[in-house]
Each structure stands twice: as structure tokens, then as C-alpha cells.
Amino acid sequence: MFVSVVASNVFGYVSLACWVFVLVPQVYLNHKRKSCAGVSLAFYLLWALGDLLNLAGALLENLLFTAILLPAYYIFTDAIVLSQFYYYRKSAGDGSGERLPLVGAAAEKRPGRLATWHLLAGGLAAAVLVLAAWLAPRSVVAQVCGYASAAVYLGAYVPQIVHNYRERSTEGLSMLMFVVVTIANITYCMSILTAQTPTHEYLRKYAAWLLGAAGTIGLELIILYQFYIYRHSHAD
Average pLDDT of the chain? Predict the structure, then answer.
């Protein structure tokens, strides 16, 4: 039992260390290029929504400390990247930078509509959670948050994958970020699975969070594969 607890803590803090670092390469690349072109705004908006749902569910379900700390930190880092979108888009509007493709060429012409849809989606999700909290027990609401965050995380990668495919390029994206994200999700899953003997009740409690982390690993590998097949489409 002691060994499993130590292993869980090690995996948990390795995951936490990865997430502390994960957005640094992308933030630096955006700053270096003075642009967020190539990065899907929808990806980060959905990721931020998933993080909010993740944190709410983790708090309500009283999960492991690292399972609560991680989404809280994610929200902080999401804010940094989204602020870059705003700053560089404003600079582009002032004529001091380039026009940003938010999720592909078509989305360039309707960034306001895109943001509106995501705000409406976030508002609807919040309304559903408030209603659920009023009608359902706390544990049920926690699980709803957990599964909702898993679904949002899985959906968040789709706009970025589609954008890369349409552009036949991963220019503007940091490959290191996706390598670290993959390692972070693997170690996060291991921290949960090694915390104690995985009984049916324990797995039920953490199923949504395992789904959200393990499910995205395959999508992260798809993006890493896109880095490989599109490696000649832009200068290294």
C-alpha cells in the first residue's frame, strides 16, 4: 500500500511538473512570431471550458489533491494563451501585425461569430450545471462535470487537427507542447490507477477523469503524426 501511494504521488507530481511547463513552448513561440497564426482559437476556448468543468467536478467529488491542483493551474495558463490571441489580434487590427487565422481561413472572416458560439456554449453548460446542482445530489453533479469536461477535452482537439489538415501544415504550433501534454496525461492516469487497489467503486469515481486524460492521448498522437507528415511544409 505504501509503495502504491508513493508511486501515485510520483506520477502525480511528474504530471503536475509537465503541466507547469506545457504551455511555455507555445507561449514563447507565439511571442517570438508575434502571432498566434496556426493555433486554433477554438482549441483553447474549448480547453478552457473543459478545465473549468474539470475543476468543478474535482472539487465536488473531493478527488486527489493533484487532480484538483492541475485544472486550477490549467485555467491560469489558458488565460495567458488567450490573452496572446487578444493582444496579437488587436495588434493586427492596428496594422502592426498579421491577420490571424483563428481556426482556418474561413474563420478569419468571422472571429466574432466563433467567440459568440463558444460563449453561448459556456453559458449553456453553466446553466445546466446550476440546474443539476439544484436538482441532483452533489456526487451526481460532480460526475456530470467530469464527463462533460472529458467530452469537451476530446472535442477541443478536433478544430486543431482539422486546421492542420486543411493547411497541410503545423507551422505556428509547438511540437514540444504536445509531447509534454502526452507525457502529462499518461502520468496523470498512472497517478490515479496506482493510488490504491482499483476497486469498482474507485474506478467509477475517477472514470470521467481517466476518460478525459486517456482519451485525448490518441488525439495528441494524431497531432504529433501531423508534425511528422507536414514537416517539409515549412522551415524547421
Answer: 79
- Rounded to whole angstroms, the Cα distance separating 30 from 64 reads 33
Q: For residue range 194-210, list pLDDT tens digits in order.
A: 877 778 888 888 888 89
pLDDT in tens, 159-197: 899 999 999 999 999 999 999 999 999 998 898 888 777
How many Cβ atoms are within 10 Å of 47's Cβ, its own excluded? 23
User: Are 184 and 170 a contacting pair, CB within 8 Å?
Assistant: no
Choose among 67, 43, 79: nearest CA to 206. Answer: 67
H, E, C per residue of the chain: CHHHHHHHHHHHHHHHHHHHHHCHHHHHHHHHHCCCCCCCHHHHHHHHHHHHHHHHHHHHHCCCHHHHHHHHHHHHHHHHHHHHHHHHHHHHHCCCCCCCCCCCHHHHCCHHHHHHHHHHHHHHHHHHHHHHHHHCCHHHHHHHHHHHHHHHHHHHHHHHHHHHHHHCCCCCCCHHHHHHHHHHHHHHHHHHHCCCCCCHHHHHHHHHHHHHHHHHHHHHHHHHHHHHHCCCCCCC
CB atoms within 10 A of CB 211: 18
pTM, to two decimals: 0.76
Sign of the torsion formed by the C-alpha atoms of 177, 182, 184 and 185 = positive
Would you give the distance in Å from CA 123 to the centre of its chain?
Answer: 19
Answer whether 175's CB lies under 8 Å from 227's CB.
Answer: yes
